[in-house]
Amino acid sequence: MTLPTGQNKTGRRGFTLIELILVLSLLVIITSITLPPMAKFIRGRALDTEARRLISFIHVAQSRAVSEGTPMVLWINSQAGTYGLLAETSSQTGDPQAETLTLDSTLKIAVLNTGVGAQTLFNNLPAIRFQADGTVDEGSPQAVKLVDVDGFSRLLTETRLRNGYEVTTANQ
After folding, report:
1. Which residues contact 1 (CB under 8 A, 6 or more apart)?
2. How far is residue 75's CA from residue 85's CA, in Å, rounded to a whole number?
3. What number of other Cβ atoms are within 10 A of residue 66's Cβ?
4. Does residue 155 lie in a domain region?
5. What is the structure's pLDDT at 61?
6. How is 18-32 classified by DSSP, letter by letter?
7. What's the CATH code of the domain at 39?
8. What is the Cα–Cα distance from 112 to 106, expressed in whole angstroms?
C-alpha cells in the first residue's frame, strides 16, 4: 500500500525534504538582504548611545558643580578617544570622584568652535568648564562633534542661555 505524498500512516501531514530546503534557502536570501541595513542601524545606535552618555555626563558635571559649589571640568582628548570629569580643587589628593570614559572604537570625538574668551584647557586638552552656579564658562567649546565610521555624526551644541548642551544631527 502506498501513501499519498506528505502523509504518514497516522494521517498527519509532514514536510518533504524539498520543501524544507526551499524554506531554508528563502530564509538565507532574506537574511542576506536585511543584514547590511541592520549593521548600519546598529552602528547608528552606538553613535546615539554615546551622544546620550556624553549629555548625561554633562548633567553630572553641572549637578556636581552646583551641589559642591566648586567648578567642574569636563576635558576631551580627541586623539585618545577619551573624556573625563573632575573638580577644580586645590587639595593635595585631587578629586576622588574624578571619572574617565572611553569612546566606542567605531567613534571619533572633536571639539569645535572654541569659546568667546581664552580657551578653557585642562592639561593642554580642550575642556568644558561648569562654574559653581552650573553655567558654562565663556571659554568652553560651543560644540562637540561625534562621528562614526560611516561619516554620520551628532553635534552637541551649547544652548543659547549657556546653561548646558543639546544633541543635534550634524549635516555632512
Report:
1. none
2. 6
3. 16
4. yes
5. 92
6. HHHHHHHHHHHHHHH
7. 3.55.40.10
8. 20
Domain containing 157 equals 17-169
- Strands 153-158 and 143-148 turn out to be antiparallel
The answer to whether 132 touches 70, Cβ cutoff 8 Å, is: yes
* Number of domains the chain contains: 1
Q: How many residues comprise the chain? A: 172
Residue 139 lies in a domain: yes
Q: Is residue 103 part of a domain?
A: yes
User: ∠ CA 34-35-38 to the nearest 5 degrees?
Assistant: 90
Report the C-alpha gap between 132 and 115 in whole angstroms. 18
Quote the CA–CA distance of 161 and 144 in Å, as a whole number: 17
Per the confidence metrics, is the pTM higher than 0.85?
A: no
Edge-to-edge order in the sheet of strand 143-148 = 107-112, 143-148, 153-158, 165-169
Q: What is the pLDDT along the chain (172 residues), one digit of tens a residue?
A: 555 555 556 656 777 889 899 999 999 988 888 877 776 666 667 888 999 999 999 999 999 999 999 999 999 999 999 999 999 876 667 788 888 999 988 899 999 876 566 788 888 899 999 999 989 988 888 899 999 888 888 999 988 888 889 988 765 4
